[in-house]
Amino acid sequence: MGTKFAFFPEQASSFASSVDNFYFFMVALSVFFSVAIFLTLVFFSIKFRRKSATEVPAPFHGGMALELTWTVIPFILVMVMFFWSARLYFTIVTPPAEAVEMWVTGKQWMWKIQHLAGNREINELHVPVGKAVRLTMTSEDVLHDFYIPAFRTKMDVLPGRYTQLWFKATKPGKYHLFCAEYCGNQHSGMIGSVYVMEPQDYEAWLAGAAGQGTLVERGEKLFAELACNNCHRPDGTGRGPNLEGVFAKAVQLESGQKVTADENYIRESILNPQAKVVAGYQGIMPTFQGLVTEDQLVQLIEYIKSLKGGPATGTQSAPSADGV
Amino acid sequence: MSTAIESKETRNYLNAGYDLKSWLLTLDHKRIGLLYLFSISFFFLLGGLFAVGIRLELLTPPGDLFQSETYNKLFTMHGIIMVFFFLIPSIPAVIGNFLIPIMIGARDLAFPRLNLLSWYVFMVGGTLAISAALMGGIDTGWTFYTPYSSTYSNSNVMVTAVGVFITGFSSILTGLNFLVSIHRMRAPGMTWFRLPLFIWAHYATSLIMVLGTPVVAVTILLVGVERMFRIGIFDPALGGDPVLFQHLFWFYSHPAVYIMILPALGVMSEIISTFTRREVFGYKFVAFSSVAIAVLGFLVWGHHMFVSSQSVYASLVFSIITYLVGVPSAIKVFNWLATIYKGSVSFGTPMIYAFGFIGLFTVGGLTGLFLAAMGLDVHVHDTYFVVAHFHYIMVGGAIMGYLGAIHFWWPKMFGRMYPEVPAKTAAWLVFVGFNFTFFPQFLLGYLGMPRRYHQYPEEFQIFNVMSSIGASVLALGYALPVFYLVWSLKKGEIAGANPWGGTGLEWKTPSPPPTENFEETPVVTEPAYSYHKEEFELVKS
Amino acid sequence: MSSHSAHATAGHPAALLHQFDTADQQKDASTLGMWLFLITEIMFFGGLFIAYIVYRNAYFDSFVAASHTLNIPLGTFNTTVLICSSLTMAMAVHSAQVGNRSRIVLFLVLTLILGAAFLGVKVIEYADKFEHHHVPGPSFQFTEGGNPKNAELFFSLYFGMTGLHALHMIIGAGILLVLIFNASKGWYTPEYYTPVEMFGLYWHFVDIVWIFLFPLLYLLGGHLPPGSGGH
Fold first, then answer.
1. Chain A contact for C223 (CB, 8 A cutoff)
2. Which of residues 245-264 of B touch C (CB under 8 A)?
3. The CATH number, out of the four listed (3.90.1150.10, 3.40.50.2300, 1.20.120.80, 3.40.50.620), of the domain defined by the range C24-230
4. Residues on chain A touching B357 (C-beta within 8 angstroms)
5. Which tens digits make up the pLDDT trace of B285-325?
6. A227-255, pLDDT tens digit by residue?
7. Is the separation of the CB atoms in C15 and C21 below 8 Å?
8. CB-based contact A112:A104 (threshold 8 Å)
């Protein structure tokens, strides 16, 4: 990080340099137009300054050709900007199919991170270099925003639903992590660091938490403790639908609609079971609102994701959470 | 058109009555304009004081001057006071109120009582906002984002929200009054395409006031309902949707930016034409570009939400429409340049403000294109880049326009000239101070400093210090006019009806104008901005 | 008040205000002002309509279940009452146009009675909600299906929208009283009846808002069999 004078933060993600290139293009264009307009203004003002008190210039009512010129040229330029930036945006918000998954929970005023292997950290995020990482994020209270300037990416973190953020770090080091959405009193204290590590260091770091149980293991235990398995049986004889292999598949609802069983759908089905009932089942499941914490929800979802049984469709889990 | 104007006429709107009642119960649009002038000057001072607190705190990285709670209240109240109680009413309620009837050749606005009511409504809202500040302030940010504002904040959200809600009605009534007046009160011969561009700009502004303000009013009402009765509208814990709030809020609050900037654009057309003695180049293009900006302005609100979990396709649409707004904005700047070309340029104080405006508006507009870029906005959203951009538009644009307007029409309002040297000095101080304050914030933003930060990492300090130093120059530039303008009221040179050689109807009536604006209803016989050599020769002899 | 407008504000309401040149101009200005005011009203209700539509999509089953508890016969009755009152209002404007003083008063009174009837029925409906604990707040209960939290949201929006509408009716009734008083004094003539005409616009607007509210709140989702919201 250092404290040296700089005009842009370090480029530490796969798309950081593309973002910067677009930025430099915009800066160049802006400087060109600002300087051109300024010089023209000064030049005209001096050349055409008033020479006598009674001087009245010949009237001139405008010209269609000129108007069209300075309508069409800006139009073309902004369209170039639009298409360039839209392409960039799709890169930034579309996570690749293969990504290391992590869970983020924001609360006033800290970031809690859970790794699949079971490691938990607060206000620190350890990631491997050169591998795509996908964060699924939610908030326990107000809006937050997960922002890593060196990666040129951020995403709002909302209560009540999951949003996603992905990046591929390209340079080992320690980078700022900020909350960018105002969240109250200690908003500017809701900061932390991202540690980008060489793969072997990362593996060693992950191993440090061995023995606590992975998220799937903990989810499985919880699934039994909450008696979910009473109704959601793998053989399909329960009062609730069989959850094996359901993740990322389309689900037919009682109301006739179809939804994809992504993280947000599973979350909603646990907290508000009546909202989208699967076709052929009664809406008898009680709500677990207030009975499971955000952390436990994550464990349950990971467990359900791990249930790979049922007919395989071969489709890779599509990017699913909101905003992606 | 009647050209016999003599400053011998002593009866005018200022000496029509001296007691308090003649001001507080006045139905004269000019006096109501002045009531607004005094009220919003007070709010500007208040908002400015909050800004001083912010800049002092940010001189050093740790939060060592104020508690974080206090700091959050400072920037929130700075935003609320400046946006709702200074910028939105600034040019329309002061200058527009004073000039629209005169410029269209009417004796008053269509609904003078409604006009006075607007001011009282405004003052009630303002009083509530100030009492919220006195009761301990509010810390939600001026955007009132839910669920923080509706559930978590322990500050005076309700009182402030009611204040903003009430003030909204002032804005609605003013807009309605302007629209009806422009449609129905024009003098004989004043056709739509003979209207000064200042009027066109206010027409577009009024459309936004009338169509947008009710939506933010109902949104703020819903926040209040959620807060008071714990009904889930925006708080997900209660079954609501926080993103819906953002949609409703920005549906008004983005167009609200155009409420601030469009009137300033209108002012610029008047000043540039008068100080070059030329018809504004491409009159119809400039006129319709105002309307285009107003209409498109209603379709871009989603560009505040590229990273808020809005659908990608919605973002695409909002991004492309935002880029389209850039086109009419560019048209205006190029038309002004063309107006200056082969004009007869003189450098009165208003013209200095106009030059400053063109510079700052260009930078503000171009950096708006950075933010409309979805891929780039992901990085700079909610950073100081955004703060710098909207200050370039709202302070660099709207306040330069407002000060330019005050300097341009001051002789008309009070019949006296102000001294040119301190006035030009102030204009330069504002321009230089402004750039020093806000340009470093673009760099800060790209470096990644989030907005609304009470403390920040050390590497951001240098730009923050630059910004704070610039702000002190800026404050000086804002303070200076108070002295020479007040001085001019008594000691200034008598201005006469038309000190700048302008062509609008306002220059064809004495300064200050009589209560009913004109001795007899003017008849308009030629387009706006028709300059005649004979008239200047007449004045000279 | 400025001395210049003194001649305009004193005495007969038909007087031309000083800022206008002709009576026609004055009337045109009032009409345009009224239409603009109604547009701001549409935007005002529009925010609530959008909120309703968004949540109806999000919590479809709960909203349908909650909607089923509304009293459709009473709602239909009220719709009829309002349409009739729009008719009597139009008749009042027409009577003013032709200068029939007693009929202006008659139709304005009829409009007022119908408006009062609407509000009376509304009171019955609201009382029923209190009885069934369907009023959002600490004592809210909902057992008719769906998620009670979401049903509560439905009722919040129901009370918000119908309450705002009723507020407009109450304000309208107040203005009606003034109009009836003035009309009985014979202030409205074929040359000057702008207040009656402007109020007519307002009343029709309030009527139209209800025409949208009724199907949205009472009828939509009625195709589902009763109780099917209880999945």
1. no
2. 248
3. 1.20.120.80
4. none
5. 999 999 999 999 999 999 999 998 888 999 999 999 999 99
6. 888 888 887 777 888 888 888 888 888 77
7. no
8. yes
Work out how many CB contacts closer than 8 A connect A with C. 23
- Domains along the sequence of chain B with CATH: 26-540 (1.20.210.10)
Give the pLDDT confidence score for residue B270 in this predicted structure.
Answer: 96
pLDDT tens-place string over residues A207-216: 887 667 888 8
Q: Are A236 and A223 in a shared domain?
A: yes
Residue among C57, C217, C68 nearest A257 (CA) = C57
Instruction: For A27-39, write each residue's pLDDT tens digit.
Output: 999 999 999 999 9
Residues of B in contact with C44 (CB under 8 A): 214-215, 217-218
Please check whether residue C29 is in contact with residue C36, taking contact to mean a CB–CB distance below 8 angstroms: no
Q: Strand, helix or coil at B397? A: helix
So what's the pLDDT on residue A4? 57
Say whether both A169 and A131 belong to one domain.
yes
Domain that holds residue A124: 8-44+94-213
**Which ranges of B81-156 does DSSP label H, i.e. alpha helix?**
97-103, 112-134
**Residue A20 placed within a domain:** yes
Residue of B322, B405, B356 whose CA lies nearest to B99? B405
With contact defined as 3+ CB pairs under 8 Å, the chains touching C are A, B
Residues of B in contact with A29 (CB under 8 A): 366
Nearest-angstrom CA–CA distance, B350 and B271 = 7
| Average pLDDT in chain B | 92
Interface of A with B in 55-114 (CB under 8 A): 55-62, 66-67, 70-71, 74-75, 78-79, 81-82, 84-93, 108
For residue B399, pLDDT over 90 is answered with yes
Confidence of residue B216 (pLDDT cuts 50, 70, 90): confident
Indicate whether B111 pLDDT > 90. yes
Q: Angle at CA C25, nearest 5°, toward C19 and C27?
A: 105
Tell me whether residue A60 is in a domain. Answer: no
Answer yes or no: do A272 and A300 share one domain.
yes
Q: What is the pTM of this model?
A: 0.89
Q: Give the Cα separation of B293 and B316 in Å (integer).
A: 19
**Residue C231 pLDDT class (50, 70, 90 cuts):** very low
CB contact under 8 A, B16 and C3: yes
Same domain, A168 and A276: no
- Domain count of chain A? 2
